[in-house]
Design goal:
Blueprint: H1 5-9, E1 26-27, E2 30-31, H2 32-64, H3 72-98, H4 102-117, E3 121-127, E4 134-141, H5 146-149, H6 163-170, E5 174-176, H7 189-194, E6 199-207, E7 210-219, H8 227-271, E8 276-281, E9 286-289, H9 291-296, H10 321-333, E10 337-344, E11 350-362, E12 366-374
Amino acid sequence: MLAPFSHILNAPGRAGFASVPGALPAVGEIPLSLIWAVAILTFGVLLMLCVLMLLRRQGAAEAAGQLPEISTARRGEYLQHLSRLLRAIRAINSLIVAERDGQQLLEKACWSLTTTRGYRMAWIGLLEEGSKRVVPVTQAGFEEGYLDQVRVTWDDSPTGQGPTGRAIRAGEPCIMRDIETDPAYDPWRVQALERGYRSSAALPLRFRGRVLGALNVYSDMPDAFDIEEIGLLQEVADHLAYAYGSIAVEEELRRLKRQLWHAKRVQAVFENAPLAMMVTDGEGNVKYANARMMEHLRGYEALEELVDRVGILDLPMFGSPAVRESVEGVLKEGRPAQFACTAATADGWTRTLTCRGVPVVDEEEGLTETVWLVE
């Protein structure tokens, strides 16, 4: 199950779903899922090319004698560092293409960063809807209860001044070079140092012009993140956000498609019911009536003449004082009622009918709808 779908899909700045298509959206005849997979694969190739270019540039600089005098061991460590980063990027891009569960995607990405790249700890936090809090949704590495004991926000309070809060507000990476000495890390310093965190980087998860949360990685060494690594990590974070957001959109489309299918089934049952049926809103305005009900409502040729134009008490068959009192009891008090009413037949005779009002009451909103059954 994906964590805050509604937050991703219904946040300000996002267009809502105006309608539910019969199938997943497509560009021309190409399915959205195929376009998404090709885009992710392209991103992965670009990321690996970036790392390979860094390795080649390193070798060329060494050959030309343009590097500062450093030990062979130090150069070997740097090359090993880039090689491990390349392996992590390969693993995550393979994961992005294959994984179709949002929560599993984030969990496996953190696991890959800590096992393949060797970060001390990695975690992902998403924005909590209706607040400024960043909620951890997954972590990997040496965490040891750290995320249960700290609070991270993205507001102007002290808990919002760390790398995560600043990265989310700015939509750009934020590096904490030395956790032990940087005053911005005061709210979390003791807990972090106890677990061996000495530096960290926060990368915003950016999706369609919005920030969904942040990817956070920690090292056991101060100043462990250089500019090349931060750039590549941000690319990884962008691809994760794109994949996670796309999965959320696809799941929401499937949910709406199922909802539409059920609605059509209910409408078919409603329309073909042997009883005359009508639905009104909380104010008593007609919202729907089936064909059997229309037979009793003389003077109205089409449903469009009724919906959102006529109230139930405006209909002749509900016009007598006794019937009005029963109808008003349902609408005002939300209590079921059964009563007799009369309706004119096509040949001018009067027919006595039994009507039941069945209110639909929400605990917070009160009466939302009433179903009227006539026989």
